[in-house]
Design goal:
The complex is a heterodimer.
Chain A: E1 5-9, H1 13-25, E2 29-33, H2 36-45, E3 50-53, H3 62-71, E4 77-82, E5 98-101, H4 107-116
Parallel strand pairs in A: 1-2, 1-3, 3-4, 4-5
Chain B: H1 2-17, H2 25-37, E1 42-49, E2 54-60, E3 72-74, H3 81-85, E4 90-92, E5 108-116, E6 119-128, H4 141-179, H5 183-198, E7 200-208, E8 213-220, E9 231-233, H6 237-245, E10 249-251, E11 272-279, E12 282-292, H7 306-371, H8 376-388, E13 397-404, E14 409-417, H9 421-429, H10 441-451, E15 466-468, H11 475-480, E16 485-487, H12 489-494, H13 497-506, E17 511-517, E18 522-529, H14 539-574, H15 578-592, E19 596-601, E20 606-609, H16 611-617, H17 621-624, H18 637-649, E21 653-662, E22 665-677, E23 684-693, H19 695-743, H20 747-775, E24 784-787, H21 788-805, E25 809-813, E26 818-821, H22 823-840, E27 844-852, E28 855-862, H23 869-874, H24 890-901, E29 905-913, E30 916-926
Parallel strand pairs in B: 25-27
Antiparallel strand pairs in B: 1-2, 1-6, 2-3, 4-5, 5-6, 7-8, 7-12, 8-9, 10-11, 11-12, 13-14, 13-18, 14-15, 16-17, 17-18, 19-20, 19-23, 21-22, 22-23, 24-26, 27-28, 28-30, 29-30
Helix pairs in contact in B: 1-2, 4-5, 4-7, 5-7, 7-8, 7-10, 7-14, 8-10, 8-14, 19-20, 21-22, 22-24
Classes of the chains: A alpha/beta, B alpha+beta.
């Protein structure tokens, strides 16, 4: 079976590195983007199965980014991954398939990815 | 010779037994017999197809029959065809002209024409071996000619039989046409019947629609997706031509016939016939049949022919006749219905007239009762009773609105009648003729009105609801134009909110609004409805209401005029002295004002002290009149000084949120001192002092400020938590990974994780440091006199490398000036601004100092992207950052140092130079220390 492809959108270098290490261990093929612009460029060229999106980013809010990804009408799954939990109340968070609060415990994120793929 | 005769007789006998009419096989048998009787090797029988100018093989004596009905030989391929045509035998004895007859094996061939009525109709071919001398066929000419004719006649007979059966089935069509009760069945079934009868591949019926086009309505043997256009113009193509000319049309080779544009169907067309559907002068449409189906028996052509066309024309006219009959039947039944409806309407009209007469009589009773009354409420009671009573106009409910001329409004007052479904049920339950037993209706209304209290009918849902009638869609018409308006559900839906509002209030969308018209103008309005009984409000009833509307209005107006006259007389008596009235008026204003008012005269003696002043200052008017302020309370002393100033400035003085102790309680007032001028001489005669107690407002403001602080604190805590969560998650995550990588002995990986953890811990430390820096109370500052020039130079040197490596151009215009600051703090503040400029700029930074009076102004300009207004507003809030790294505390700390510690100001501005925008941070600090710092 082919590996699932995941794109991680995260502006903080260390956090991005941590998430990709954790998910690579799970056997996924990982690609990363440091901001929304890079993410939008990359989804134009690749076929991802899932994208994790950080909400607080300098160039574009992650909620907005999730909407932009949806506009491209690819069937990709989106997980909002953020340090804040209050964005969950935001209507536009429904553009994503799941909402995970960042912590050092990656099990919740892994479970959600398994559920969606 | 006798032998030959015998053979011929035998041949005839065989021929008589052959059934060529019903079987193609028998032609093969014929060929076999001929071959045998004429001692030939092989024999082939051909039929001439005139349209194709070719001979078709129809029977053969050889074993292989596969070419029968398939093979055809064009006349141009036959050698000496002209000879053959003239009735001569053509012999082929060498290779020339042999090509067309390849399928025969014999070396010598004799072609014998079959001629009928001077026309070639067929050909019989005999084949012989080389060594056999060919027969002299001339002697047998008559015989063969007869045989040929028999074959030809047999085939004609076939067509004749086919046509006969078609004609017979017309009877069945007749039945369909007669039995059909609706057009659809008629069209559909007769079309299907026609198709079976004529062996048709597909058919369709195109009827004229309302927009004068031909539209496909029924079809046979066509799938819906094969219909390319559902409608065509009435003159389009073959169908259109047929419709337009009312003539049947036969088209055999679709490609050659210009009328055959059947582009609305996606079907192959070999031949088609169409006939108009019309009767007398009415044309309904066209029926078109396309392609004849393949059949097992041979026929000389496969396309439709004139007989088919004639048949179709006949069928079409039968269908049309049926349709026209059906249409007449429908028309007749419609007329019948109309007639019945007319009879009913007449009956209804009669009963309505009877009812109207009854209503008119009832109105006379109501009017009489109203006329005999001199009290408005009494009249209103009689009116409402009369309208809602079964014996009166029998409405379910009547709502009375009074007109208020001053505001130009209508005010809802009384609502009488049935107010709920329950009441309706009770009413039906009890005898409906309740009122009739009471004899004279006028008498009844009068007595009932006297014993009841109209205020019991002041329904709380509508009581005192106010409707401005000017420009109200309903009331304007009713009040000013004195029209009765009947509202029905359709109107409510179509016309906007004002209708809807009324309908919602009444709970029904059908009601009538009636003006009560006096001598000159409308005095009130009634809204009547039948919400619960659902009775219709008829036009006749509205006519009756018109009469009522005038009578009721006049009655009310009369009484109102009478009452007005009475009350005017009374009020005149009361106002005997206008002077008294004025004085009373002024005093009452003064006394009822919500502010405390004290008036002082030129000698500063208290002349006026209103009720509010009594309650605020807890002194009665009698106690203080004639006294001066210092006689009353200490807190008034300062006010006396202010009063003096008013005499000097001759203008109003206002003190806001002035704190006073009133009987030991702290109270805040907005106080206004106004000079009291003499009416004629403009001389100041005294001072009016107004006290507005704003203590509550002041306390409220304090509370709001306190809450704002708390919410800022909450927001800050959330930001701090987020700032910390990220590094913590990273540290936690990598710690866990590290234990795994250690186990696996991956040293390099472990070290990488360690270095990340280290950097994140450093980040945490920095965050904590900055938070402490931001939130710690002001420490003891050490001010000294320093040259600002030197301070900035030191800082620039510190950042020189960074500026060079990024290729930034730095312009510095710093004047030498000594200012009094805490050097280490001011350096910290400027470091933040320089660092910020380096991060944000694209390649240009400017630092400029300038002395402005007692202030030192320092500008930090950069050419980075200019922030929008919203972002600029937030830029000094803690933890706000546009950068990906950093805590967002740099600028807030700078602001704190400049504004709180040095009494200066820090602002952000956008500067435009030559159409380019720049971001500028501006520091302004006092050159000398303000008193506070010393």
């Amino acid at each position: 079976m082919e590996k699932h492809k995941i794109l991680i959108v995260e502006d903080e270098d260390n956090m991005r590195f941590l998430i990709s290490e954790e998910l690579e261990d799970e056997g996924y093929e990982i690609d990363t983007a440091a901001n929304a612009k890079e993410c939008l460029e990359k989804i134009g060229e690749n076929n991802y199965d899932l994208i994790t999106v950080d909400i607080e980013m300098p160039d574009m809010n992650g909620l907005e980014l999730a909407g932009e990804i949806r506009k491209k009408s690819t069937p990709v799954k989106i997980i909002l991954l953020t340090a804040y939990s209050h964005y969950k109340a935001d209507l536009s968070s429904w553009a994503a398939d799941a909402y995970v609060v960042k912590s050092s415990d990656f099990n919740i994120l892994k479970q959600e990815i398994q559920r969606l793929l | 010779m006798s032998d030959q005769l015998f053979n011929q007789l035998k041949l005839f006998k065989t021929l008589l037994n052959l059934d060529i009419v019903n079987s193609d096989e028998s032609v093969n048998e014929l060929a076999e017999e001929l071959s045998y009787n004429f001692s030939s090797n092989e024999c082939a029988v051909f039929i001439f197809e005139n349209e194709k100018q070719a001979f078709r093989l129809f029977g053969i004596s050889t074993l292989d029959k596969s070419l029968v009905k398939v093979l055809k030989i064009k006349v141009t391929d036959i050698p000496n065809y002209q000879q053959l045509k003239r009735g001569n035998i053509v012999k082929i004895e060498d290779e020339s002209g042999r090509d067309a007859f390849e399928f025969l094996n014999s070396p010598k061939l004799s072609l014998f024409p079959v001629i009928d009525n001077h026309q070639v109709v067929g050909m019989i071919v005999f084949g012989y071996e080389d060594d056999v001398e060919s027969l002299n066929l001339v002697n047998l000419a008559d015989l063969l000619r007869s045989i040929g004719k028999i074959v030809k006649l047999s085939i004609e007979n076939r067509l004749f039989k086919e046509n006969t059966s078609k004609l017979l089935s017309l009877t069945r069509l007749h039945e369909i046409v007669n039995k059909s009760r609706d057009e659809e069945t008629l069209y559909r079934e007769s079309m299907n019947m026609t198709c079976t009868m004529l062996n048709v591949e597909n058919a369709s019926i195109w009827l004229k629609n309302d927009s004068d086009e031909l539209e496909i309505k029924y079809w046979y043997g066509i799938r819906e997706e094969q219909i390319l256009r559902k409608t065509i113009p009435v003159n389009h193509g073959m169908v259109g031509w047929c419709f337009d000319n009312r003539e049947p049309v036969l088209s055999i080779s679709a490609k050659k016939d210009p009328r055959a544009a059947l582009d609305m169907l996606d079907v192959d067309i070999k031949s088609a016939i169409a006939a108009p559907l019309y009767h007398d002068n009415d044309i309904y449409g066209v029926i078109i049949l396309i392609n004849r189906k393949d059949q097992p028996l041979y026929r000389p052509y496969k396309h439709f022919d004139e007989i088919d066309l004639a048949l179709l024309e006949d069928i079409a006219s039968r269908i049309s006749l049926g349709v026209s009959k059906l249409k007449y039947v429908t028309e007749l039944s419609k007329e019948n219905k109309k007639f019945r409806a007319l009879t009913l309407a007449n009956e209804r009209l009669l009963s309505q007239q009877k009812e109207q007469v009854r209503w008119l009589k009832n109105i006379t009773y109501i009017n009489r009762a109203m006329r005999e009354s001199y009290d408005v409420k009494n009249i209103q009671s009689i009116m409402l009773l009369g309208i809602t009573s079964e014996r009166g106009l029998g409405f379910d409910r009547a709502l009375l609105l009074q007109k208020n001329d001053r505001n130009q409004t209508l005010v809802a007052k009384y609502w009488m009648g049935i107010m709920s479904e329950d009441e309706m049920a009770t009413k039906i339950g009890s005898s409906t003729g309740q009122h009739y037993g009471l004899g004279n209706f006028t008498q009844y209304l009068r007595e009932k009105a006297l014993t009841m209290d109209l205020d019991d009918y002041a329904d709380h849902t509508v009581r005192n609801r106010v409707f401005p009638y000017k420009s109200h869609i309903v009331f304007e018409k009713v009040v000013t134009r004195k029209k009765i308006v009947k509202v029905i559900p359709e109107i409510v839906e179509e016309w906007g909110n004002e209708y809807r509002e009324l309908a919602a209030l009444l709970g029904t969308e059908e009601f009538v609004v009636v003006p009560l018209v006096g001598r000159f103008e409308t005095v009130g309005v009634l809204i009547l409805d039948n919400r619960f009984s659902g009775k219709e409000i008829s036009v006749n009833l509205i006519d009756v209401l018109k009469i009522f509307s005038d009578n009721a209005g006049l009655a009310i107006e009369n009484v109102q005029n009478y009452e007005e006259l009475k009350s005017k007389t009374l009020s005149l008596e009361r106002q005997t002295s206008l002077l008294n009235y004025h004085k009373e008026f002024t005093t009452s204003i003064l006394e009822s004002l919500d502010v405390a008012i004290i008036v002082l005269d030129r000698e500063d003696k208290i002349r006026e002290w209103n009720r509010r002043a009594e309650s605020v200052f807890k002194h009665r008017k009698e106690e203080v009149l004639g006294l001066s302020f210092d006689n009353i309370e200490h807190s008034f002393e300062d006010l006396e000084n202010v009063a003096e100033k008013v005499y000097e400035t001759k203008d109003t003085i206002v003190l806001t949120e002035y704190e006073m102790k009133v009987k030991g309680e702290t109270t805040f007032f907005d106080i206004k001192f106004t000079p009291l001028r003499h009416t004629d001489s403009d001389q100041i005669e005294g001072i009016i002092i107004m006290f507005d107690n704003v203590t509550q407002k002041k306390l409220m403001e304090n509370e709001i400020r306190r809450r704002e602080k708390l919410s800022t604190l909450g927001e800050m805590s959330a930001r701090v938590a987020h700032e910390i969560r990220n590094p913590l998650s990273v540290i936690g995550g990598f710690t866990q990974r590290m234990s795994k990588s250690l186990e696996a002995g991956e040293e390099r990986r472990t070290f990488k994780y360690l270095s990340i953890i280290e950097s994140e811990v450093k980040r945490l430390e920095k965050i904590v440091e900055e938070i402490l820096e931001f939130s710690r109370p002001m420490k003891r500052l050490e001010f000294e006199l320093v040259n600002i020039n030197k301070v900035i130079d030191d800082l620039v040197t510190l950042y020189e490398d960074k500026i060079d490596s990024k290729g930034i151009e730095l312009k510095k215009e710093v004047h030498s000036l000594e200012i009094m600051v805490d050097v280490s703090r001011i350096k910290q503040a400027m470091i933040n601004l320089i660092q910020n400029a380096i991060d944000a700029c694209k390649g240009y930074i400017e630092i400029v100092t300038e002395q402005q009076g007692e202030f030192m102004k320092i500008k930090f300009l950069n050419d980075g992207e200019v922030l929008d207004k919203e972002t600029q507003d937030k830029i000094f809030s803690p933890f706000f950052t546009t950068k990906t790294s950093g805590t967002g505390l740099g600028l807030p700390i700078t602001k704190k140092i400049i504004e709180e510690e040095h009494n200066g100001s820090l602002t952000i501005e956008t500067e435009v130079r030559k159409d380019r925008e720049y971001t500028v941070f501006i520091i302004e600090i006092p050159i000398k220390l303000s008193e506070q710092e010393e």
